[in-house]
Amino acid sequence: MHGGWVPLVIGAGVFFVMTTWRRGTSLLTRALTRRSLPLTKFFAEVEQRQPPRVEGTAVFLTAHTGGTPEVLVHHLRHNKVLHERVVFLSVTADDVPEVTDTDRLDVERLPLGFYRVVARYGFMETPDVAAVAARCCRETLSLSSPDDITYYLGRPTLIPTGGGSMMKWRKLLFVFLARNARPATQFFGIPPDHVVELGMQIKF
């Protein structure tokens, strides 16, 4: 009655924004997963079309560890070319403060010069994609120099739709938060001069 409601309102507002971000991120990841092409179908298309392969290594960041990254499908559809080595890189957060170096990377060799790399970090660690790529070059994949690596990121234009498990006005709030979020190049420690961003429209 004498001002105690103020911290409650502030706390409720912060909680609402945080849950909106969490729910919106989940919906966005689900939408990208639905658009993902199965690996077997993707490799069959690559073998059939045989696109030109250029020197160097391409790293495609993806939020999920299954299927083909939407950014790669978008890149191949429009540019019609692939690098000699293509890496699907997923960064995950484990429920531990720190992950040991021996458990940091999981590497899977795929057909046609493709690799899948899962980099694990604890909740008190800051992801460093450049360090992961350098370690892959040095130890695991026998890749080219880190200077020859190109990182491909998606820059989605989010189009909120009505219905679903999240109201449209709340989706609009998520779009506003996403536009003002920290850039992926800064958050993941990616060299800005080695990044190619591809735009795409995503309805969620």
Note down, in words, how this protein is organized:
- Strands 3-4-2-1-5-6 form a six-stranded mixed beta sheet, sandwiched between helices.
- The longest helix is centred in the first third of the chain and has 31 residues.
- A hairpin with a 3-residue loop joins strand 3 and strand 4.
- It contains six helices and six strands.
- With 204 residues, the chain is an alpha/beta fold.
Features:
204 residues, 6 helices, 6 strands, 27% strand
Outline the fold blueprint.
Blueprint: H1 5-35, H2 39-49, E1 53-61, H3 70-79, E2 82-93, E3 105-110, E4 114-121, H4 129-140, E5 149-159, H5 168-179, H6 184-187, E6 195-203
Parallel strand pairs: 1-2, 1-5, 2-4, 5-6
Antiparallel strand pairs: 3-4
Helix pairs in contact: 1-5
* Share in β-strands: 25-35%
Count of the domains: 1
Overall average pLDDT:
85
Distinct helical segment count: 6
How many strands, what sense, and barrel or not for the largest sheet? Answer: 6 strands, mixed
How far apart lie the N and C ends?
A: 42 Å
pLDDT below 50 for ≥5 consecutive residues: which ranges? none
Structural class: alpha/beta
What is the approximate shape? globular
In the sheet with the most strands, the strands line up as 3-4-2-1-5-6
Q: Report the count of strand segments.
A: 6
Q: How do the helices and strands follow one another from N- to C-terminus? A: HHEHEEEHEHHE
* Helicity range: 25-40%
